[in-house]
Write a structure and sequence with these properties.
By secondary structure, the protein is of the alpha+beta class. The protein has 9 helices and 19 strands. It has a 5-stranded antiparallel sheet with strand order 1-11-10-5-7. A 5-stranded mixed sheet has the order 17-16-15-18-19, sandwiched between helices. The chain has a 4-stranded antiparallel sheet with strand order 2-4-8-6, with no helix packed on it. β16 and β17 form a beta hairpin.
């Protein structure tokens, strides 16, 4: 499709000048007709010589992160011996919430040109990018020639993996305190040796190290650190209330996303993934249980990065269901599958005293064996 430029429109309008200058309608009309015919021939030649374009590529991470800005780049490889002046727009799925997906520029001869823009996914799953629409300017600057470049590109939206990369960066730079993380060592009846220190009147006699005491000729006690290899079980409520979207908090930061908000389940999934990653980093075993009116997914607690990746894949397409959560069945299932004492973190939301009472009774049963923590999401609008 050929699209006229402002230059072409200006040249066409100048055809009216002979009518005004000659004062003769017929003579002026004849000259204007010749002029317009010439302009039409030139624009046709300009459109004919518009190149077909180059090779387009779309570059982005194999796994996009939910609820975070992800960078996408359109890259043009120009194999021609002439420069290309172009305008381009990418076709982005609406649920990826693009920003800056259209642009213009000049690609030098036998060079490359790139348009970088951002997307903010608001839903997990598979999304297919559409065609790239590009306009190329003719050599005379009279006509844009629009072409559509089709190529299949599927993006997978996972829970927020960029937050994990950011956490790793803070770890490498020793800046965890900037995000509120503090090291806390728990002294107690563990089995992992930590240090020897002088005896104090509050210490138990059984913690005295008699060999060290004999060498120093002064009472010395042993401090043990509690074991790190604990079970952490992530419980995700996928009932109907978790599908509601939380309104965004007001902010003056221009980089803060202000589009469609995430659902409660999306926030819970992001938090679960981060907790899973941090837990496996310190040697804990992490498990997952997702439930609505029945248990839909269960992964027994295991250590290691490979298990973390399996949890990420399990959370990748977890969706809320239009049902009420059955807390009793979830806790009964957990009690039958996980017998070792564990830290159980339940992400949920309840409405009404009846649902809250059911939740409290179910948690009370699980708390006989496990340490239970219930996490709900604060609504900024309340």
């Amino acid at each position: 499709m050929a699209i006229p430029t402002r230059r072409l429109l200006f040249l066409a309008l100048t055809g009216a000048i002979p009518i005004v200058l000659t004062g003769s309608y017929r003579a002026g009309l004849f000259v204007a007709g010749i002029w317009l015919l010439s302009v039409a021939v030139l624009s046709g030649l300009d459109a004919w010589y518009v190149p077909a374009g180059g090779i387009w590529l779309r570059e982005h991470d194999a796994k996009l992160s939910l609820g975070a800005w992800n960078t996408v780049a359109l890259r043009l490889q120009n194999p021609l011996a002439r420069r290309l002046t172009l305008q381009v727009r990418d076709s982005v799925p609406p649920l990826l919430q693009p920003q800056g997906e259209a642009g213009s520029g000049v690609c030098e001869a036998e060079g490359s040109w790139a348009l970088a823009y951002r997307v903010f996914p608001v839903q997990r799953g598979d999304f297919q990018f559409g065609a790239v629409s590009a306009r190329y300017l003719g050599p005379l600057g009279l006509v844009w020639r629009q072409r559509t470049h089709q190529f299949v590109d599927v993006a997978k939206v996972y829970p927020n993996l960029l937050a994990i990369n950011q956490y790793d960066a803070f770890v490498r730079r020793g800046q965890l305190q900037e995000i509120g993380v503090r090291n806390s060592r728990r002294w107690g009846a563990g089995t992992e040796f930590e240090r020897l220190r002088d005896y104090t009147p509050d210490d138990e006699y059984r913690r005295i190290d008699w060999n060290a005491t004999a060498r120093r000729r002064a009472p010395v006690v042993v401090d043990y650190e509690t074991e790190r290899s604990q079970n952490v079980i992530l419980l995700l409520d996928t009932g109907r209330l978790m599908s509601t979207r939380l309104p965004l908090e007001e902010s003056d930061d221009p980089d803060v996303y202000r589009g469609r908000p995430l659902s409660r389940l999306d926030h819970a999934v992001n938090a679960s993934l981060m907790l899973s990653y941090v837990s496996q980093q310190v040697g804990d075993r992490v498990g997952l249980l997702a439930f609505g009116d029945h248990v839909s997914r269960f992964m027994p607690p295991r250590p290691g990065r490979g298990h973390f990746l399996r949890i990420a894949n399990a959370l990748y397409n977890l969706q809320a269901q239009p049902t009420e959560p059955d807390f009793g069945e979830a806790m009964a299932f957990l009690g039958s599958r996980v017998t070792r004492r564990s830290l159980v973190v339940l992400f949920t939301d309840v409405a009404g005293s009846e649902a809250a009472g059911t939740l409290v009774r179910s948690i009370a049963v699980a708390a006989r064996r496990h340490l239970c923590v219930v996490v709900t999401l604060r609504d900024p609008a309340i």
